[in-house]
Amino acid sequence: MAKDQRAVGSVEQKPLVTEKVEIYGESYVIRGAVPKEYIAEVAREVDERISALQMKYKGLPLYKVAVLVSLNLAGELHQARKDNEELLKLLEEAR
Question: Contact, 47 vs 24, CB < 8 A?
Fold first, then answer.
């Protein structure tokens, strides 16, 4: 098989990168097949959300704050997927 040919069904693997991040005072080492800057940006978003909710609900255990942040993010993801489906339908109708 030539260098530029791939076996049917093969998936090109992106190299994993490692980034050390801090979320609410705790250090985490995150590995992923995305740029380090992306990992840092996502971690910063999570840290900001946890910090904001911790300030709003003083005394609430961190694990409960983390669950609330997770629910908020899942809700936003769900809405984004719904919006994306609606936009795709509109594009199809416009053709």
Answer: yes
Nearest to 32 by CA among 42, 23, 45: 42
Dump pLDDT digits (tens) for 69-88.
Answer: 999 999 999 999 999 999 99
> If 0-12 CB within 10 Å is exposed, 13-18 middle and 19+ buried, where does residue 77 land?
exposed
Bridge partners, residue 26, by sequence = 23
Token code pair at residue 19: 């980034």
Average pLDDT over residues 16-42: 97
Its pTM stands at 0.76
Burial 4-20 (b: 16+ CB within 10 A, else e): eeeeeeeeeeeeeeebe
